[in-house]
Amino acid sequence: MTRATTSLKTYNQDCSDCPIRHRAVCARCETDELERLEQIKYYRSFEAGQTVVWAGDNMDFVASVVTGIATLSQTMEDGRRQMVGLLLPSDFIGRPGRATSAYDVTAATDTVMCCFRKKPFEDMMLNTPHIGQRLLEMTLDELDAAREWMLLLGRKTAREKIASLLTIIARRDASLQLSVADGELSFDLPLTREAMSEYLGLTLETVSRQMSNLRKEGLIVTEGKRHITIPDFDRLLEETGDDSDGGFLM
Known about the structure:
Blueprint: H1 31-40, E1 41-46, E2 51-53, E3 61-67, E4 70-75, E5 81-87, E6 92-93, E7 104-107, E8 111-117, H2 118-127, H3 129-155, H4 158-176, E9 185-188, H5 193-200, H6 204-216, E10 221-223, E11 227-230, H7 233-238
Antiparallel strand pairs: 1-8, 2-7, 3-6, 3-8, 4-5, 4-7, 9-11, 10-11
């Protein structure tokens, strides 16, 4: 298998103006702590379809997704491949203390990541409680989301799967905009229908049919290939099969 070459593009972002600042691993950092992070960070950009890291590869960095979406996947010995997670803006990649990647990480869209050299980052964790505490919170949220995803893949209908994925992405987009996931929401769907089918364990035809049904029933409005408007978020949430507390912790 040919390994993709990282596409580096010029990207500069001051921490105080970062679009994921309030959700990222550095969310609680004070000014002096941000200055220390500035000294060990750099940006990497990846084109859609490009591999960020392969399972088993050494990782000399950890990173936060700034823009775009990446996927986590595993490949079995016979070549079967399963997508096991999505990395949305502000999500963290890599594990301090672990030398290699446990999953293939692939850019599903054009993606920018804020990377930190691993050893200096690990040293900062020991001396900066704000970073360790925030990373623990994010890890626990990730664990909750993984458990919910087990339910989605194992028990939900195709319609519930599609509705759940749309609400997950809508919630994250709203949180990045510092708004509440309520009423009418609009966002650009970052995944192709092919990627949605792979991630949800559905056929492409099923994804297209369910998206069409949601559109015909007025649960979503589509504009172009990717722009989605949800006229009534609570109404779509009812289609996910989740309980009244909203299900996914994203």
